[in-house]
Specification:
The protein is of the alpha/beta class. The chain is 26% helix and 29% strand. The protein folds into three domains: 1-65, Nucleic acid-binding proteins (OB fold (Dihydrolipoamide Acetyltransferase, E2P), Beta Barrel), CATH 2.40.50.140; 92-123 and 303-470, Rossmann fold (3-Layer(aba) Sandwich), CATH 3.40.50.150; 129-278, OB fold (Dihydrolipoamide Acetyltransferase, E2P) (Beta Barrel). The longest helix is centred in the N-terminal third of the chain and has 19 residues, at 88-106. The chain has eleven helices and 22 strands. It has helices spanning 88-106, 142-151, 182-195, 234-247, 307-321, 338-343, 357-369, 382-385, 388-392, 410-419, 431-441; strands at residues 6-11, 14-15, 21-25, 28-33, 40-48, 52-62, 129-135, 157-161, 169-171, 210-217, 223-229, 251-258, 272-276, 280-285, 292-297, 328-332, 349-354, 375-379, 398-401, 423-428, 445-453, 463-470. The strands form four sheets. It has a seven-stranded mixed β-sheet, with helices on one face. A seven-stranded mixed β-sheet has the order 18-17-16-19-20-22-21, with helices on both faces.
Length: 471
């Protein structure tokens, strides 16, 4: 066998990571791009390894009954919704299995019966935040590129990076991830920039002016816009921001950032509030009763990107913690304190720890907004804060942890074993790193409940909450 060879009559069995699916050929595992479980397909080999093969589908010989027509015209190019060709009821089955597989195979963990996955009520327009990238030289198909080279022209774009290609950005015509006015704002920003001949950024040459456009929305209909540029050219900034705020009154918070670095991260940069409030406010039902919690979200603040499903996630955490009003609770990686405030009314005291200073500032404001007096927040890197002296002087009854995708540092896991709370509720958007961390914690804790939650429909990602209790 060699690259380019066609394998016929592959029966696709299940889904794998990164939107790929799995078949077998002569006893070898084949990772397929462009297939769905239940398909029978022909595919061209792209990688040959002793342990596995990789291939791209060239022909669907028999369509899976679980297939559906993708909604988005960018499907296949954009990596954002790689499962959009599979009906949603099937997607969540594979995600539920993914959680079980990771916890048992990577962590070697003994599990109770895993709860059925909580499906997202919205499979489209569920995100509250998107980052778009300006490009002076948008990605083109081979045919488009041939014409452009012949005519010596290059086209600008405002859209998403092509997976695994940092310098390739395709122009987004319409995205179905975020509710309006997201598409309208993005399209108008590009239109103004093109009309006014404002230079788009060239990711390879590192020259140009317009870098990124971030749009955040709330369930109540507020929008925040953050324009990132390379230097302070006020007339160009004014043209774009005045144009979009005039057209979209939903924009209640409008900002810009001057970023001359070689990357687009802005956690360490000043943010200039150009118009409106320096924040937007999200609301969420309290776990009990009819009241509402308010969360102030600044440009640097983390907030769960699927707000309606975030309520189900937090309700799961609240239920697993099973607080009686007497407990001291640690909320690690607290962000703007959403979980801390959600459970505060049922705890004696909540201590939230977060490494982003602006997020902690928002968390403290959120305490004031919600008249919560038993929540405290401190800033710092988790592994540095949970040092020997701190651990020896604190005794939480319950610890809630919701770390980023790379999970918890091993030192943090070891600190939790020393802190020795009665219960730990571990929330993760990456069951693989969660499994690694749970393996360390299994020295003193047993898993008593596992609850997968789908926060990201049409993607391979799945959220998971695990309840741990001391042996």
């Amino acid at each position: 066998m060699k690259k380019g060879d066609i394998i016929e009559h592959l029966r696709v069995e299940t889904m794998a990571a990164e939107g790929k699916s799995i078949a077998h050929y002569n006893g070898a595992v084949v990772f397929l791009k462009g297939a769905a479980p239940g398909d029978v397909a022909s595919a061209a080999l792209t990688k040959i390894k002793p342990q596995f093969l990789e291939a791209v589908v060239t022909q669907i010989e028999q369509l899976s009954p679980h297939r559906t027509a993708p909604v988005c015209s960018h499907f296949g190019l954009c990596g954002g919704c790689s499962w959009q060709h599979i009906i949603y009821s099937e997607q969540i089955k594979y995600k539920e299995q993914q959680v079980t597989d990771h916890l048992t195979r990577i962590g070697g963990l003994t599990l109770p019966s895993v709860n059925p996955i909580l499906a997202s009520p919205d499979s489209l327009h569920y995100r509250n935040k998107l980052d778009f990238t300006f490009t002076a030289n948008r990605w083109m198909s081979a045919e488009e590129l041939s014409d452009a080279k012949r005519e010596n022209r290059f086209e600008t774009g405002l859209g998403f990076h092509i997976p695994r290609m940092y310098d390739r950005v395709f122009d987004v015509a319409e995205c179905h991830l975020q509710p309006e006015p997201s598409n309208g704002i993005r399209l108008l920003a590009k239109e103004i920039a093109c009309r006014e001949n404002i230079p788009f950024f060239d990711l390879r040459k590192q020259v140009g002016f317009l870098r990124t456009l971030t749009i955040r929305t709330t369930v109540a209909g507020e929008a925040m816009v953050i324009l990132q540029v390379t230097y302070d050219e006020r007339k160009w900034i004014e043209k774009i921001l005045s144009g979009i705020t005039a057209a979209f009154p939903q924009i209640t918070s409008c900002h810009y950032i001057i970023n001359g670095k070689k990357n687009d991260t802005f956690a360490d940069l000043d943010i200039i509030c150009w118009k409106g409030k320096p924040y937007i406010t999200e609301q969420m039902k309290k776990p009990r009763g009819d009241g509402q919690l308010q969360f102030r979200i600044g440009p640097k603040s983390f907030y769960q990107t699927n707000p309606r499903q975030a309520y189900e996630l937090y309700k799961t955490v609240w239920r697993m913690a099973a607080l009686t009003g007497k407990e001291n609770v640690f909320d690690l990686y607290t962000g703007t304190g959403t979980i801390a405030h959600f459970i505060a009314s049922d705890a004696r005291h909540v201590l939230g720890i977060e490494y982003v200073e602006d997020a902690v500032r928002d968390a403290r404001i959120n305490s004031q907004l919600n008249n919560i007096s038993n929540a405290e927040f401190i800033v710092g890197d988790m592994k540095d804060i949970l040092h020997e002296a701190f651990v020896s002087s604190h005794s939480p009854d319950v610890v809630i942890a919701d770390p980023p995708r790379n999970g918890m540092h091993e030192d943090v896991c070891r600190a939790l074993l020393t802190l020795s709370p009665q219960k730990i509720v571990y929330v993760s958007c990456n069951p693989a790193t969660q499994a690694r961390d749970l393996k360390i914690l299994s020295a003193a804790y047993r898993i008593t409940e596992v609850q997968p939650i789908d926060m990201f429909p049409h993607t391979t990602h799945v959220e998971n909450a695990v309840k741990l209790e001391k042996h």
